[in-house]
Amino acid sequence: MMSENTSVSSAGGITPLQQMLASGTGALFTSLFVTPLDVVKIRLQAQRTPFSKVLSVECVPWSVHQSKWKCFVYCNGLMDHLYVCQNGSSCTAWYKAPTRFTGTLDAFVKITRYEGIRSLWSGLPPTLVMAVPATVIYFTTYDQLRDYLRCRMSRQGAHIPLVAGALARLGAVTVISPLELIRTKMQSRPLSYRELRICIQSSVAQDGWLSLWRGWGPTVLRDVPFSALYWFNYELVKEWLCRQSRLDEATFMVSFTAGAISGTVAAVLTLPFDVVKTQRQIELGDMETLQVAASKSSSTWLLLRRIRAEFGTRGLFAGFLPRVIKVAPACAIMISTYEFGKSFFQKLNQERQLSSL
């Protein structure tokens, strides 16, 4: 019994494995709810600007015959992923389907009626292979770091969630970044494991091990500040809502509301970095998947200054409403489901302890 007690987190009352199960469940629920929103958005964009008219790059990938390609960013509520199309022939389901829509609601209805409800989750399974582990690493690391810092400092510092959130996100991005790059490489053509290994070895031999983390910088510049702001505001808003409602512990709705508010604030404040990150992600897709020669890109700060000079401050906040509509529910669903999962395991552990007395 003593060994069981020592394996349980002193602050949270649950084990790291239970934290991982709670965050993994939250990740699945979040992706199931948010993915249809992004699929509909992509289908509407594809309809307004057909594949033949919108091509991010024209290149000569592997033959003398010119091929046309398009890269676009797809979000499952947990991570942004790059998808690539070649002349529409090797594109994902939402670009190939011919259904015409008059608006968002009409798209939901027609996709469900004519293509089946499963089409709302087009492209989701491959992205979950990385998005769920990344989320599990991120949330479990955050909780462990926060509890460790609180224990070491012996006080409830408001800055602790900020530091723990930034470090947890930095770790998750660093672990997942090479895997996302490999997934992007594999989209251009089917690769056996041997071919993939040779592809990675040649990349490392040519550019060094750091080439596997290409695109890491812009992702960190967006995700780390977002995570720091998100957890800082989440803990503050949750505590304030509990005080207002005279609650000892946060309920599902308190966590949901705090997650939505803090996610919105963090999304708005880090939007300029999101604009740059999306642009860099498209460039990375052109370079890695389409074998386009890498052009020397400007630093993130120079790119931000250029956008501001050309489009004004509003240019730095382009896509404000779509990002908030996507981020707010994703954050709310993820954190409330995660907290609910942790509460479930806490009660389960308490019942086990009582029954063993």
From TrEMBL:
Catalytic activity: glutathione(in) = glutathione(out)
GO biological process: heme biosynthetic process; mitochondrial transmembrane transport
Keyword hit for Ribonucleoprotein: no
Protein's UniProt keywords contain Transport: yes
PROSITE patterns assigned: SOLCAR
Keywords tagged on the record: 2Fe-2S, Heme biosynthesis, Iron, Iron-sulfur, Membrane, Metal-binding, Mitochondrion, Mitochondrion inner membrane, Repeat, Transmembrane, Transmembrane helix, Transport
Residue spans crossing the bilayer: 20-40, 120-140, 160-182, 250-273
Protein name (record): Mitochondrial glutathione transporter SLC25A39
